[in-house]
Amino acid sequence: MTSSTAPSTSSPDMPAPLTSGLFGTESAAITNVQRFSLHDGGGIRTVVFLKGCPFRCPWCCNPENLSSEPEVSFKERLCIRCSPRPDGGPCQTRPEDCPTGAKELLGRTRDVGDLLAEVVRDRSFYEESGGGVTVSGGECLLRQDFLCAFLEACHGAGISTAIESTLALPLADVRRLVAACDAFLVDFKIADRARSLEVTGIDPDVRDANVRSVLSAGGRVIARMPIIPGFTDDAACVDANVARIGELGVTRVDVLPFHQLGQGKYDSLGRAYDLRGVPQLAERDVAGVVDRCEAAGLRAVVHGE
């Protein structure tokens, strides 16, 4: 999945716009609305991050989206100890009252109209660049009613759409989803099914069946291969993923070098991070993966576009 590094355009105190409620009662917990993203489906995009994921990839760069419940992030380096506790623990100031942003509430319930009113502000950038809105997570398929309603609302406003997903959950209504989504950015991680289930909980067989269904319904699928040291970077895993992508009829793959942009998020959430200290990968480190993809007739794009 994509890492959020730009400041959020949303705020827990932001009043609901006048369009709120015009698109039904579907709502979901959103942690971030990241503007001006460049590697999440083509052109300039706004990426909406939904909270909640049933899987547990050790390298996840968005740990704030693992739980479906709101959480409080605490960045100790920003804390000015304005309300110290006698026991020496973090202050009890509410996130919305924190003067420095050391405390932040992660996860605000948004409805479709509320969210659409925010992303439509950048429609001119989407139109000029061939961009649009991408929904990520977490795993956005956990909230398929909300997902489809939001994507449909974006289409109604003339905005192109995409999702980033494992595609490893049952699809409630494939045709509705395909009609509302212009591009499916689908993860190909650990190729071996037994190891994938053990390490991440993701069943590649479910993903592959869903990819076939999406393609049969006329959907566009872009494969994504995160290259993670010790998990997905060995030749056997790469070759198996490349072969499977080709067998499914997908023609493009985004090769995603491992990065450490999410490490600080684990610290602020008090979560353990197993890949702490693992060196990041540069484009030259995945050149061999790109060669393998191209040798198999796939178009390979490092970082995506």
Task: Give a verbal description of the structure.
The structure is a single chain. This protein has helices spanning 112-119, 123-129, 144-156, 174-180, 193-199, 204-216, 235-248, 263-269, 287-295; strands spanning 27-37, 45-50, 71-74, 103-106, 108-111, 132-136, 160-165, 183-187, 221-227, 252-257, 299-302. 43% of the residues are buried. Strand 6, helix 3 (144-156) and strand 7 (160-165) form a beta-alpha-beta unit. The chain contains 9 helices and 11 strands. Strands 5-1-2-6-7-8-9-10-11 form a 9-stranded mixed sheet. The chain has a two-stranded antiparallel ribbon with strand order 3-4. It is α/β, with parallel strands linked by helices. Helix 1 (112-119) crosses helix 3 (144-156) and helix 3 (144-156) packs parallel to helix 4 (174-180). It starts with 26 loop residues before the first strand and ends with a strand. The chain has one domain (27-70, 107-302): Alpha-Beta Barrel (TIM Barrel).
Give the arrangement of secondary structure elements:
Layout: E1 27-37, E2 45-50, E3 71-74, E4 103-106, E5 108-111, H1 112-119, H2 123-129, E6 132-136, H3 144-156, E7 160-165, H4 174-180, E8 183-187, H5 193-199, H6 204-216, E9 221-227, H7 235-248, E10 252-257, H8 263-269, H9 287-295, E11 299-302
Parallel strand pairs: 2-6, 6-7, 7-8, 8-9, 9-10, 10-11
Antiparallel strand pairs: 1-2, 1-5, 3-4
Brief summary of the model shown:
By secondary structure, the protein is α/β, with parallel strands linked by helices. It is 28% helix and 20% strand.
